[in-house]
Each structure stands twice: as structure tokens, then as C-alpha cells.
Design goal:
This protein is an alpha+beta fold. The protein is about 30% helix and about 30% strand. It contains two helices and 16 strands. It is rod-shaped and about 210 Å long. The N and C termini lie far apart (about 170 Å).
Length: about 290
């Protein structure tokens, strides 16, 4: 009858498949049959090494939890550098065993960190622009800077106002401090310019009324002066007219009798003179009535 021999799993050994016996299967016979399986001894399990990386400050105090890694003895490792808030790795103290190979003994790698300096304190300067009553006439200007650093505030040109140079703040320039600094510039309001041109309807009405009154006063004054002038002229003319006949008579009596022709000339001249005087009187009267 047929038989089949068994392959066994043997701890620490591995069957050598290249040496499987030829009679591993067959038929029973009257003689004993011996079947032999050959096994190779398994190599020893690889030894595992351990690397522990520590993170300390300059005083040796741990500032982060250690990191542990394992690996086969002889394999290479690289200890991890970590970014730790508030600290900076001291590159001048990088450990010699930061890289290497695992061994049967534990390896400890230590990174040293320096504590970061405190963040610079920031101060604030607020510049205000006010009138004499302390009312703000411009939006405040804010500046920030590291405490101890210098600052300079600005004078602004503000429409309708003039900076009061006699009240310039002592702290307009200086250095930032821990806390707020307030710089105040004082301005004087400019005096309004006189403007004769009316702007509102009421002003226009008042301006028109005043202007009309002034015009009427000027007209009345002109008429009065004119009337007085005409009156004076009329008096002078009347006197001149009243004196003319006498003068003519006197002249006529003193003139020599040169004949009828000269008398005609005198008569025409006297008539034209009288007409001219009458014209002046009526013309002045016309202007006076106006």
C-alpha cells in the first residue's frame, strides 16, 4: 500500500527543500524503509538596539519629553532635532552621537537648547490735534515701537487753523516706554475774512435793502447839492441879467455915435445874449425839477 511521510515544523529549524528525500512517498515493503528530512538551523534573531534622544536647556533641565527609537543592531540611526517653542537649539553643542548605528547597548543622545530672550515690549504714542478749548480738530495719529527706541511726531497743516507755536508739547520727540504716550498739539482758529458778498437769502435781502437805502441817500444828497448849485447859479445869472442892461446903457452912452450900422450890431448882440440867458435859466430849472 502507498505511504506519505510527514514534513514537520520544528522550532529553530527550517526544512531544506533542496534535500527532500526520494522515498518521501512510496509503498510499504517487507523491508523497513527509512525516510530522512534534512533541516537547516535558523540563524539567531537579530538583536534590537535602542536610541533615546533627550532635549534639555543649558542647565540640563528637560524641556521636552524624550524620544525613543529602536532598530536592529548595526543599522544606522539619526536622532531627531525638535523645534521647541521658546527655545533655540545650540548648534555649537550638537552631540557627537547624533547619528550612528544601533548597538546591543542603549544609546542616549542629548540636544542642548538656549532659552529665547523675551519678546521686546512695544510702546504706543498717540498724537492728538486740538483747538484752544481742547476739542479734537483732526483724527489722532498712533505709532508703535519697541520700548527704548526713538519716536518723532508730526505737525499737521489743518485747514482753518494755525499751530500755536508757543504751546508745542515737550514730548513731541522721545523714546517709547512701557505704556501709552500722548502728545497734544494745540491750534488756534483762523479769524474769518470780511466778505461783503451776501451768502444767505437773508443776507442778500439785508444787503439789497441797505444798498437801496444807501443809493437813495446818495441820490437825495446829489439832488440837494444840485439844487443848491442851481439856486446859486440862478441868483448869479439874475444878478448878471439885471446888471447887463445897465452895463449896456453905460456902454452905449459911452460909445461914440458911429452911425446906424453899429447900433444894429449892438441890438443883435444884446438880443442873442438875452436869449442865451433865458435858455440857461430854463435849462437849470428843468434839471432842478428832475
Amino acid at each position: 500500500t502507498a505511504y506519505v511521510t510527514k514534513k514537520l515544523a520544528i522550532e529553530g529549524y527550517t526544512l531544506d527543500e533542496s534535500k527532500i528525500p526520494a522515498n518521501a512517498t512510496g509503498k510499504y515493503s517487507e523491508n523497513d524503509i527509512v525516510v530522512t528530512y534534512v533541516y537547516k538551523k535558523d540563524p539567531p534573531a537579530p538583536t534590537v538596539g535602542k536610541v533615546t534622544t533627550k532635549y534639555v536647556d543649558e542647565a540640563g533641565n528637560e524641556i521636552h519629553d524624550p524620544v525613543t527609537e529602536t532598530g536592529v543592531v548595526g543599522a544606522e540611526y539619526v536622532a531627531k532635532k525638535l523645534a521647541i517653542e521658546g527655545y533655540t537649539l545650540d548648534e555649537s553643542k550638537i552631540p557627537a552621537n547624533a547619528t550612528g548605528k544601533y548597538s546591543e547597548n542603549d544609546i542616549v543622545v542629548t540636544y542642548v537648547y538656549k532659552k529665547d530672550p523675551p519678546a521686546p515690549t512695544v510702546g504706543k504714542v498717540t498724537t492728538k490735534y486740538v483747538d484752544e478749548a481742547g476739542n479734537e480738530i483732526h483724527k489722532p495719529v498712533e505709532q508703535t515701537g519697541v520700548v527704548g527706541s526713538s519716536y518723532t511726531t508730526a505737525k499737521l497743516g489743518i485747514s482753518g487753523y494755525t499751530l500755536d507755536e508757543s504751546k508745542l508739547p515737550n514730548n513731541r520727540d522721545g523714546k517709547f516706554i512701557q505704556g501709552d504716550i500722548i502728545v497734544t498739539y494745540v491750534y488756534n482758529m483762523n479769524k474769518p475774512q470780511v466778505n461783503d458778498t451776501p451768502t444767505t437769502e437773508q443776507d442778500k435781502n439785508n444787503y439789497s435793502d441797505n444798498n437801496d437805502t444807501n443809493k437813495q441817500n446818495d441820490i437825495n444828497k446829489t439832488n440837494h447839492d444840485f439844487a443848491r448849485h442851481v439856486s446859486n447859479n440862478k441868483t448869479a445869472i439874475k444878478q448878471e441879467v439885471s446888471q447887463k442892461p445897465t452895463a449896456l446903457k453905460s456902454k452905449k452912452s459911452s460909445l461914440p455915435k458911429t452911425g446906424v450900422k453899429e447900433q444894429k450890431y449892438l441890438l443883435v448882440f444884446g438880443t442873442l445874449l438875452v436869449l442865451f440867458i433865458i435858455y440857461i435859466i430854463f435849462d437849470e430849472k428843468k434839471h432842478h425839477d428832475y
